[in-house]
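Worked Example 4.2. Consider the chain below.
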Amino acid sequence: MFREMRLTKQQLSKEETETILRMKGTGTLALAGDDGYPYSVPVNYIYVDGCIYFHGALQGHKCDAIAREPKASMSVIGADTLIPEKYTTDYRSVIAFGEIHPVVDDEKKRAVIRQIGMRFCSGYADGIDAEIDREWDILNVYEMKIIHMTGKRAMV
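Applying the procedure from the previous section yields the following structure tokens:
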């Protein structure tokens, strides 16, 4: 169903791939957008147990695209260092494929959004729960269960 990497010698192990997903926190989510146009949007995320979690509003392009077609891919750049004298870059990246669904269980939704808050706003941890409460009624939390993923590195 999914293509194998063409340049297998550049493929990262599953452990290296998961390390990138855990270390980074921003990726580009690719969805089937309006009128057949691809729609890619940067999202902040957390990676837990084979799933990518991110948040969004209850309305908008991202929400509509996910509702229409839950299949998606996400790319994450783990490293990207320009090496101009070699006309290349030293990079590490991940592409994950999966299906996205809203988290509907309130307890899980609150736990995930709290983890996201702690990841990105840890210096303001005291206010995370109040912010969650303030935004709760307009907040969606999504889970992308990864079906297939690959990690790739440069050969420099």
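The beta strands are 26-32, 38-44, 46-48, 51-57, 71-83, 88-102, 139-153. DSSP finds four helices and seven strands in the chain. Compare this with Example 4.1 before moving on.
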